[in-house]
Specification:
Strand order of the largest sheet: 2-1-7-8-9
Radius of gyration: 22 Å
Largest sheet: 5 strands, mixed
Mean pLDDT: 91
Low-confidence stretches: 369-398
Bound molecules: iron/sulfur cluster
Strand content: 5-15%
Oligomer: single chain
Distance between the termini: 27 Å
């Protein structure tokens, strides 16, 4: 990736975990552990104190802390955590239209507190009706919690937004979910508190846990069964089609000029995720081993940032050195009928390349074997060489400090 330009970053810590283990979760399924206030302060200070080689002063002028990156406010002392974030950051914490659905359902005082601290909208995810939904969450009662949570949001004056994940399992259950929206009068009740009820269907991004449910990815045949009102509201919310068949996307990608990054865009706001074991990742990529930048208990912060800036992990290496066209040529299914957001397909291919490469080879070995910094893939068509070097560009997928893919 290009050398760090931004002097403002986020550091998000997994201080309490999550009550769910969603089968689409890009953050994976790590254990729930607690991090204490001292851990949070220490990690933030490490980033705040980093001085880049050749410079005199700390590089980052602003380091904002987030005391969660899985379920927000799942920490039993969530109010104290909120106060702590405000103190560390010197401004009110951002909410990203996300709250703890579990807490909304189980703590009757939570919704009004969330409204008081400035939450105006909250997204809730569904995968189907009760049985299907709870299977996706890997927690019985999750569907019912989401219904109670929706009611409590409205009572507190917070706009609910329903995100439906499009898999082959939800298709026959869509009419029942739409009926539920009508029965709960969600449009009317949201209007009554001064807003619009957003309802949309989206495909899971093929990384994290969602990698394991690729067999449930819908096809064009499923897409035609989506009720027109939902299709329209989804296209309105997403700003374009819900998705396209892989084969159709590939035919375009193969003709594309090489542009880097190939899969994960350079985020507008760079965020470092720190797990409860102090492993560090960034919001370029997913929380898989081939994206891990280091560990704060074992590695110097300079080393961790060097790994990021110089693509010293396989995920970054692929993202900045192998074009989407090249990946498509090797991994794409030209007759693929499954539906993807066009920006998600390179993510799938980068993951395939990383999985097939990790942990047999390290980036250094790959680089030294290929003096032009070139491809690890064999049989790339000759007319495509010489391979381009990484440049800044591309506009495929970007994650904010907190992703609404919850
Ligand atoms: S998607 Fe959100 S709620 Fe589900 S497991 Fe991941 S962090 Fe938890």
């Amino acid at each position: 990736m290009p050398p760090l330009q931004t002097r403002s970053i986020w550091v998000a810590l997994d201080t309490a975990g999550c009550p769910n283990r969603c089968r689409h979760c890009w953050l994976g399924v790590s254990p729930n552990r607690r991090m204490c206030e001292d851990d949070i302060r220490r990690v933030v200070e490490l980033f705040r104190g980093w001085v880049k080689l050749g410079e005199q002063n700390p590089f980052f002028e602003r380091v904002n802390a987030l005391t969660w990156y899985r379920e927000p406010d799942y920490h039993p002392n969530y109010r104290e955590m909120h106060t702590l974030e405000e103190e560390i950051n010197g401004e009110p914490p951002r909410r990203f239209d996300l709250l703890s659905i579990w807490r909304l359902a189980h703590d009757p005082t939570y919704a009004s507190w969330a409204r008081k601290v400035g939450t105006e909208a909250c997204q809730i995810s569904f995968f189907g009706t009760q049985k299907t939904n709870d299977w996706f969450f890997r927690r019985s009662g999750a569907f019912q919690d989401s219904i109670v949570a929706t009611d409590r949001l409205l009572e507190a004056g917070i706009r609910p937004r329903w995100q439906l994940f499009f898999t082959s399992l939800i298709v026959p259950e869509l009419p029942e979910l739409l009926e539920l929206v009508g029965r709960m009068r969600l449009r009317e009740r949201t209007e009554a508190i001064g807003g619009e009820f957003d309802l949309f269907l989206r495909t899971p991004t093929p990384d994290g846990e969602a990698w394991n449910i690729e067999d449930l990815r819908p096809t064009a045949k499923d897409l035609v069964q989506v009720p027109s009102e939902l299709r329209e509201s989804s296209e309105h919310y997403l700003g374009g089609p819900i998705g396209e068949a892989e084969g159709a996307i590939i035919s375009r990608v193969l003709d594309d000029d090489p542009v880097f990054p190939s899969a994960y865009e350079l985020p507008e706001e760079l965020c470092f995720y720190v797990t409860s074991s102090f492993d560090v990742f960034s919001n370029i990529g997913e929380l898989a081993p081939w994206w891990k930048l280091g560990n704060l208990e074992q590695d110097d912060i300079s080393r961790i940032i060097d790994v990021l800036e110089n693509n010293r992990v396989l995920g970054l290496h692929a993202n900045y050195n192998i074009s989407a066209a090249e990946l498509a040529w090797h991994y794409g299914r030209r007759d693929g009928e499954h539906i993807y957001d066009p920006g998600d397909l390179p993510i799938r291919w980068v993951r395939m390349w990383c999985q097939s490469t990790f942990p047999q080879r390290r980036v250094e070995e790959l680089d030294s074997a290929l003096p032009d910094g070139g491809t690890m893939l064999e049989c790339w068509p000759a007319h495509r060489s010489p391979r381009p070097r990484a440049t800044i560009g591309g506009k495929l997928r970007s994650k904010p400090p907190q992703s609404n893919r919850h």
